[in-house]
């Protein structure tokens, strides 16, 4: 495990938020790329430069339903003096060009169908009598109902310039062009392009598999009855949802009792499906802080490079944190504090960027902005610690939601931003400009 | 199927974009709510007002690892003159309050553990000698390694006010409070709150199941070889990805050949897993436009209320469109044009809002903004049609990406916005302000 240069040393050292984050992100490497089917690659980062193998369109084709004609045959045509052409057949999309359009001839052609040899332009069906011998029509009759439409004669009412209503081969992209660059995130339009150039699979970094487990003998599964001294497990639900939201495939293990052996064996058991592990609780200075007890020296002897380091951060909430790796494959593990607000804020600041780094994204952080504080009274904050208060942001202003207590989960559910009070501030006056992390 | 009041009538009627959208959204109703496990409800809309059944925290508890004491016993305590108290045992989180703290006594207590009867405040372990009889300590020793920490005596170095480091019962939310209102979208913090108040399941509108199928005999699955006149199917991939992106569970059927019977039976076959169906291609004026042929009168006789109406929109790209319902359950179906850009733009304008309406969301549209056009030359647009050009938006300006052709899928993959040229404009000068739909 790498560690950023400490400002102080020893177990009393207080890490800054930035030092801890740098330590985490320095140690975490993007996942190895794999070849995935297009739709499985949605939201993933491309790791190859994709080159166009065959031009798009692959052949000259019609942009309209109409008739493929020779320009000279329709020169000067009008509704009063139409050009009468022999219809030599249909060219539907998906048909190879078996027809040839000679002088005085036309082929009925559908949108996307290849321009047949001999033809130079397409006249839309609305510029013709559709072969019915009367005035202009607004559509062809369905082939299945009126097969005679592919034969007989058509009257064309307007001239067409060479290449009119023809999409030229290669007018979208040309063979050899760069379709997409490595690093592109694959959304629907990028998937459209990859499919269009014939790529059924693509090389991307996969979504990381994140295992979330909460610890605490006081935790009860929601929906069950609470006994004295118990509370409901909310962290494993919140962080599983947040991990998915960040782009991961998240597995919720749920609450593990405060027993170091149980915790150690649960972590080992889950390693097989984890690219990243997240625990909550058990990281502070109490006598039952089993995450610390179970993982602080995990693998020190058997597995070089393994082990989780526990530390104090100059941060509120979220002072106690653990980070390191576990198991023979050195799976990264972030051990977050157990208070619901502490664990959620810690997730946003450290786990979300870790997940996005595993995905190979370069933009790993929540957006931040500056906002004017709207509040009834000054915000107070402990000197030397960076405080993250829950807030509601709109139109350049932010107001606090609920108090600073790290157990206030109701307020968290009504916030959409974190208000950042820097280390050197002990209070912030209403009307002051503050930094805001946008969670939405 | 309801239809908005037409500006003109008959089959030549040209619908505006807004009329078609209104027609679609008027006909589509949010899905019936169901009870889902919390994590299955992520991203869904709550349909019940959720009331807090039991206050949070459910009991007075410690916010620190430390000692639960009586205020009088530690009054005036200092490091020089510590208060020596008898340790009567541990109170760990999850333990019911079996201990009683009498005069001259203290209970060692962990964060989140219930304040035992008799105790009035908590002193952090850092304000004590941790029972070791020496100076201040910075942590407790683990219970498993040092069980004697739960007994003996502790010296307290600082006084504590009544209720110090105690989180009061109900200080987060109180029984009977409104936790969340109907209409709330459930993200991670809302899931945290629901779990914290003990809700294992919640009543929400489910994600709609959207079946996507493309039509066209010219379409080949990406990864296979192209024969003459063939192109790759991109629409079914792009729209499946886009449907997921909008919040749906999307099923890609893939390309169906241009045969009305095959299409009709495929649609009927898929109905069982569809809350919404989307087709591409086959809706224009050609002789092989089988979606129109297969669905225009589907169920007219057997199924009152069924049937898909095909119409022309005053829009570019995306002029031909179909909308209606299919099958005995009147599943809504949007039939989009087949050109890749046309189908994608149509999806964004009509299908995405339909999906989000099915989800019960009120904010169903992509955000729009005004931007200054940056371009080398004026944009031209057909009078009487609303044009949607692909663009790249940044910092209040937008520049066109690629041309207007509805086959230009490469440009689409490099755009993040649609530039809207209104019906009454035939050209837009560089520097003019335009409306922009943000796709990102």
Automatic annotation (TrEMBL), chains A, B:
SMART domains: MoCF_biosynth (SM00852). Pathway: Cofactor biosynthesis; molybdopterin biosynthesis. It catalyses: adenylyl-molybdopterin + molybdate = Mo-molybdopterin + AMP + H(+). Its EC number is 2.10.1.1. The keyword Metal-binding applies. Keywords: Magnesium, Metal-binding, Molybdenum, Molybdenum cofactor biosynthesis, Transferase. Its cofactor is Mg(2+). Signal peptide: none annotated. InterPro entries: MoaB/Mog-like_dom_sf, MoaB/Mog_dom, MoeA-like, MoeA_C_domain_IV, MoeA_C_domain_IV_sf, MoeA_linker/N, MoeA_linker/N_sf. It comes from the Bacteria. Residues 211-357 form the MoaB/Mog domain. It is an enzyme of class 2 (transferase). Belongs to the MoeA family. Catalyzes the insertion of molybdate into adenylated molybdopterin with the concomitant release of AMP. This is Molybdopterin molybdenumtransferase.
